[in-house]
């Protein structure tokens, strides 16, 4: 296995190029992982990422990817009913999942309850059951290990629902935690903790907005800020790849943009 903290930065001219490149990357990983272990666990976030996944739902990938072996999870979810416009599940369903033949029983969305604590506990219990059933492996650090996490970031450097000035980002015990005062609406959310995120085999960090350019530059240029941006603490077991368009990369020094 490659040493921890391997990172790759891919900078492309337009969001459309990122979408094309990302689809090829995910399809390649899907093929390799299914050959090696018979399934492919993919963790989605919300936000602009879902639209950037659109090429996977088109030719040739719609036909060539072995969707029957995919398992879908969410790195974070808003604590709202699944048909609420704020739901990350609904966003993913409308933009991605409804267009590809992933078996419904392989789609692990939250079970809604008005209590974010109850939702987080339930999601963690279900993950623990999948580990017991050997559907998901455990990492060497004792956290579930997903094959691929597809993440985005916010302008404040948040990743999943781990925000700069909230304690959840420092949780090293739980697998899934909750927040009732998210600085970005809606306030109630659940989120994977950093030990789970950083146990993923592969992570794709997909950023295609000018608004996130400062957070990208602070992270990739190792500019010290207090507290450190959550997105700067993401690392993968094998490889973290940043997929950026020129807007997201616009605050990086010129030598990075070649
Ligand atoms: O609230 C959230 O925001 C982040 C970033 O979203 P974006 O629209 O700036 O791409 C997202 O990754 C997260 O899943 C979502 O709940």
UniProtKB/TrEMBL annotation:
Pathway assigned to this chain's UniProt record: Carbohydrate degradation; pentose phosphate pathway; D-ribulose 5-phosphate from D-glucose 6-phosphate (oxidative stage): step 2/3
Name this polypeptide is given: Probable 6-phosphogluconolactonase
Gene Ontology BP annotations: carbohydrate metabolic process; pentose-phosphate shunt
Catalyzed chemical reaction(s): 6-phospho-D-glucono-1,5-lactone + H2O = 6-phospho-D-gluconate + H(+)
Its EC number(s): 3.1.1.31
Domain Glucosamine/galactosamine-6-phosphate isomerase, residue spans: 14-237
Key word Hydrolase present: yes
Annotated signal peptide: none
GO molecular function terms listed in the Swiss-Prot or TrEMBL record: 6-phosphogluconolactonase activity
Classification lineage: Eukaryota, Viridiplantae, Streptophyta, Embryophyta, Tracheophyta
Keywords attached to this entry: Hydrolase
């Amino acid at each position: 296995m490659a040493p921890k903290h391997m990172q790759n930065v891919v900078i492309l001219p337009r969001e459309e190029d990122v979408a094309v490149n990302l689809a090829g990357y995910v399809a390649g990983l899907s093929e390799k992982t299914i050959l090696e272990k018979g399934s492919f666990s993919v963790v989605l976030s919300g936000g602009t990422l879902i639209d950037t996944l659109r090429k996977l739902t088109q030719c040739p990938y719609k036909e060539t990817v072995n969707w029957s072996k995919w398992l879908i999870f969410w790195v974070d979810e808003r604590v709202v009913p699944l048909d609420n416009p704020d739901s990350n599940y609904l966003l993913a369903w409308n933009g991605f999942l409804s267009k590809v033949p992933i078996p419904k029983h392989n789609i692990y969305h939250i079970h809604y309850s008005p209590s974010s604590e109850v939702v987080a506990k339930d999601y963690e219990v279900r993950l623990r059951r999948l580990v017991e059933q050997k559907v998901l492996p455990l990492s060497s650090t004792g956290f579930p290990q997903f094959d691929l996490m597809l993440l985005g970031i916010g302008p404040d450097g948040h990743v999943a629902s781990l925000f700069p000035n909230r304690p959840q980002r420092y949780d090293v015990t739980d697998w899934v935690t909750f927040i009732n005062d998210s600085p970005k609406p809606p306030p109630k959310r659940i989120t994977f903790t950093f030990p789970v995120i950083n146990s993923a085999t592969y992570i794709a960090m997909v950023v295609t907005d000018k608004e996130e350019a400062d957070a990208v530059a602070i992270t990739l240029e190792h500019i010290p800020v207090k507290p450190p941006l959550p997105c700067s603490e993401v690392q993968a077991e094998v490889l973290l790849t940043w997929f950026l368009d020129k807007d997201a990369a616009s605050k990086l020094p010129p030598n990075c943009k070649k």
